[in-house]
Amino acid sequence: MWTLRSLLGLRCAAGRAMSQGPTRRPRPPKDPLRHLRTREKRGPSWVPGGPNTVYLQVVAAGGRDAGAALYVFSEFNRYLFNCGEGIQRLMQEHKLKVSRLDNIFLTRMHWSNVGGLCGMILTLKETGVPKCVLSGPPQLEKYLEAIKIFSGPLKGIDLAVRPHSAPEYQDETMTVFQVPVYSEQVNGKQQLARSAERLSPEPSPDPGPAEGEQYLVDGVGQKMHGRDPSLVVAFVCKLHMKKGNFLVLKAKELGLPVGTAAIAPIIAAVKDGKSITFEGREILPEEICTAPDPRVTFVVVECPDEGFIQPLCENATFRSFQGKAEAPVALVVHMTPEHVLLDSRYQQWMERFGPDTQHLVLNEHCESVHNLRSHKIQTQLSLIHPGIFPPLASLRPQEGGLAPCVPLVRGQCLLKYQLRPRREWQRDAIMTCDPEEFIAEALELPNFQESVQEYRKTVQDGPAPAEKRSRYPEVVFLGTGSAIPMKIRNVSSTLINISSDASLLLDCGEGTFGQLCRHYGDEVDQLLGTLAAVFVSHLHADHHTGLLNILLQRERALVSLGKPCHPLLVVAPTQLRAWLQQYHTQCQPLLHHVSIIPAKCLQKGAEVSNPKVERLISLLLETCGLEEFQTCLVRHCKHAFGCALVHTSGWKVVYSGDTMPCEALVQMGKDATLLIHEATLEDGLEEEAVEKTHSTTSQAIGVGMRMNAGFIVLNHFSQRYAKIPLFSPDFNEKVGIAFDHMKVRDRWGRAGGVGGAETLSIHAQVARLGPLPSTTGTGPSIESLLEAPSVPRVTSSELLHKLGRQCPPPVWSSWACPHHWAWGCPGSARLGLT
Ligand SMILES: *[C@@H]1O[C@H](CO)[C@@H](O)[C@H](O)[C@H]1NC(C)=O
Ligand SMILES: *[C@@H]1O[C@H](CO)[C@@H](O)[C@H](O)[C@H]1NC(C)=O
Ligand SMILES: *[C@@H]1O[C@H](CO)[C@@H](O)[C@H](O)[C@H]1NC(C)=O
Ligand SMILES: [Zn+2]
Ligand SMILES: [Zn+2]
After folding, report:
1. Residue 115: which pLDDT band, with cuts at 50, 70 and 90?
2. Is the dihedral of CA 543, 544, 545, 549 positive or negative?
3. Any idea what the Cα angle at residue 563 is, between residues 559 and 565, rounded to 5°?
4. pTM score
5. Fewer CB within 10 A of the terminal residue: the chain, N end or C end?
């Protein structure tokens, strides 16, 4: 049997990888105060000499799955403009250093700009950044307060908000002016929002506290609450002049007293552009000094809709930078949707900056691929089994109808514009996603094609497909890692496709919407249209922070599909409400998008006295075609639930959430068709599993066996396993490992042409090996996936290295700890994982 041998091989390899895992100490932070010290040395009277090197770099190009974000670098400072969901992760992936990121600028209080702040702040804190200032809309202050409440004390990092009304900000690199722009359509917009609310069948079906519904009555109360959708803040950033360099050799030639104290005033004078008189002779500054680099300016502006066009075009501050300005505008960054960009008033405004100004557009028409690696892996895997590993959708940039009247460049991830030393576009860091190349690379592997054929044959030779009873449930794993998103695994989220017009999500970690975009591409709106419910197992950030975006995007999708907007059913611990409420009150209205069914009301034998909740429960069962939706408390933190869904057609899917082995789950899940169970840790780490209230691989399998589950898929792997989790001797043909974007079907389904009860076990064989090399690079590769049980062959490590490049171990292993938005989670500060 190949299994034993390769399992043994694997265990060693992985064991080696692991030995760094548990024992690895958090890296000592690099001296974070280094640059502050330098500043102090210079003393308060130090006059900025202007930076030598400054560039802007696109972190996220504005596509739907990643928002728009821009990183600005100088040798003195780092800045970030906007920080949507997943930005922290993208920066980490692309090695954009956050160690001096002490200023974050936000153009608008919208989830697409602030959704990643919480993670970013924790990362900054972890890196040792002593202070970070957020500039932008005044609501930021409240938002920051909310973050502090939820993420626990943020000791060690000083956070402040610089509202747009504050005086301009100045540091070693530049001076930043905040320009508020108020929409002229405020009233119209509110009308729209209200009519959308009227469309919903039940205006406030939420059984929550009355304050939660105040917004319905009180449309104008928005401003009172500090939430003001009519404001965007633009940033005008003026680089300091860079003084010329003193030419020592020339000075010596002229006989100047180089090397003595007398030279200092001379240097100062010529750097300031003044002539000097030396021994009766006038010396011009250009004789001993290079020309200064003048001030240049860049502008970052978001213009989210037509209502902002006129105010923006008329704004006096911008006018003063258009045409002949003291500091010419080198670049304007437009975080502006295409339809606004096409408006003739907007185009004229762009033109007014003059022919020497470059324009960078970050919007939905930009290239959407921000992570080559997962595209590459998925492209290669789909060669083996396109049903289980469907190719990812790359939302192709649409052809813009834009006739550029100005020098205009569309954003791409990592595209740079350098302002100093030379003004130019730099494209060397941009990645190109070429599926052909990925395929060619795989095909070049020795024996690859033969192995694929052999595998396909094994699959075909399998038992004949059973009668085609049902294509459901179809399970799409969107996030299969724990704690924080990493390169290979994003955080918890699983989609259950129940019928052609109903689906539901089990958990909803940060970035869930982005994963849906990458999986479904342009179909994502249709999918959101069928989304009937979300189950949130517990309130740890890796399970629920993606919910806000799902709510907002779903509403957008329903509007664009012309469907009525009804609230999304969310089964969750009641504590979720407080979190939603906070965001609703301070930032963006969204409570009308959601109806919460307290998870405790679905426990066996629970008495539901609230008729509203009762109604919601019947609605839930009806829309999903379920006979039963049951929850039970699991052993993780306070208010943590698992669930079991029993469909009218007979299938039963059970989901553990995060938990230690749990008897209640075993009872609830009896005879499940499919169990999705967490397996955060490898076997041998039972103690750590208890401490962190998670399960090991064998414990999870044990639960499934006792449950008599038809099939078990493991997920929620610790991110310390950079690639694949460890295998346990308990693995059998009923056990599979989940990967992001893996799709499996019910045993009667016909995924990828495989039928009968074997479908899932073939998935298991694929999944069991794992497409991804382990941390040391000696784990199984895509190639070894093809080793069907009948082909006992150990892959040479040379091959293994081919596809699997080294992946750095997770940097923030201790990061997850404060990332708990813990609600009375016992000892949560001790828990390293969620
Ligand atoms: C996880 O999410 C990030 C965006 O946050 C994305 O770039 C990446 O491709 C995703 N990874 C996988 C394996 O889907
Ligand atoms: C234009 O800018 C000024 C200051 O920069 C600001 O006070 C004003 O409100 C802006 N005008 C509009 C119409 O938004
Ligand atoms: C659910 O499955 C059906 C049948 O395979 C398919 O048509 C539909 O698009 C799927 N929906 C989702 C959300 O995947
Ligand atoms: Zn978790
Ligand atoms: Zn958890």
Report:
1. confident
2. positive
3. 70
4. 0.76
5. N
